Amino acid sequence: MHEASTRTHGTTREVPLKRFEDAEQALLQPLPDVPPELATWARVKVHRDAHVQFERAYYSVPFRLAGKDLWLKATATMVQLYYEHELSASHVEVRPGFVKNPPHPGLSC
Description:
109 residues; alpha+beta; four-stranded antiparallel sheet; 7 strands; IstA-like_C; Integrase catalytic region
């Protein structure tokens, strides 16, 4: 590693470590205090029974969305379903099987 950082770069004709110290290091910002939330996004279709399937689990959504395509956002602790950029359903549990919300006018379970 030491050798690569002190050689003259073939394209820029600069020493990479010197360029970093002179121009780039001052532009670095500290990492945020809170790490970003990792999520998986998937396009899902609502089945006739008003459920979507994701990773062997079925999540309920309002019945009016049957047949529609939704965006599903899955984190380590929550699954959220969006229709036309609006949150339509939210589930705390992420496990195989059926996960139902209480009546869907309230979004969280």
